[in-house]
């Protein structure tokens, strides 16, 4: 049996930057609800380049910082479009333990969890 391919419609593609997405992230047997919205190019954080002359450690840190900025921008946009007291507030994100920040960022940015199949 073959699976039929699914294609995006033009309307669906155009609505991606206006649609608030929600998901749950599991941490220590409890869930954290997050919401976000895809960004238009003009909404992307301005510092989306990394200086290649930096050391590998510095480049890795720069990529982590960029991911954090992008995550915050996407969460902020989602919360501005649809206020929901049950989702993780942007203001709290920076106060979270690093492990939780990575879990939330990976979900928002669509990074696959290597433990999920």
Describe this structure in words.
By secondary structure, the chain is α+β, with helices and mostly antiparallel strands. It contains four helices and two strands, in the order H-E-E-H-H-H. It has helices at residues 10-15, 56-81, 90-93, 98-109, and strands at residues 20-27, 30-37. A two-stranded antiparallel ribbon has the order 1-2. Strand 1 (20-27) and strand 2 (30-37) form a beta hairpin. The longest helix is centred in the middle third of the chain and has 26 residues, at 56-81.
Please state the overall shape, judged from the principal axes of the Cα atoms: globular
How widely separated are the two ends? Answer: 21 Å
**Helix-strand pattern, N to C?**
HEEHHH
Low-confidence parts: none
- Oligomer class: single chain
According to DSSP, the number of beta strands is 2
Largest sheet, order of strands side by side?
Answer: 1-2
Q: Count the DSSP helices.
A: 4
Note the main sheet. Answer: 2 strands, antiparallel
Mean pLDDT: 89
Instruction: Work out the helicity level.
Output: 40-55%
Into which percentage range does the β-strand content fall? Answer: 5-15%
- Return Rg in Å: 16 Å
Which structural class do you get from the secondary structure elements?
alpha+beta
Please supply descriptive tags for the structure shown above:
2 strands; 117 residues; alpha+beta
In short:
With 117 residues, this protein is of the alpha+beta class. The chain has four helices and two strands. It has helices at residues 10-15, 56-81, 90-93, 98-109; strands spanning 20-27, 30-37.
């Amino acid at each position: 049996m073959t699976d039929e391919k699914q294609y995006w419609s033009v309307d669906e593609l155009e609505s991606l930057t206006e649609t608030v997405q929600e998901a749950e992230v599991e941490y220590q047997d409890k869930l954290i609800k997050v919401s976000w919205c895809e960004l238009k190019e003009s909404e992307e954080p301005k510092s989306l380049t990394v200086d290649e002359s930096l050391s590998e450690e510095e480049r890795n840190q720069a990529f982590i910082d960029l991911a954090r900025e992008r995550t915050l921008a996407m969460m902020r946009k989602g919360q501005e479009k649809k206020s929901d007291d049950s989702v993780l507030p942007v203001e709290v994100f920076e106060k979270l333990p690093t492990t939780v920040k990575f879990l939330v960022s990976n979900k928002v940015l669509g990074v696959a969890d290597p433990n999920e199949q």
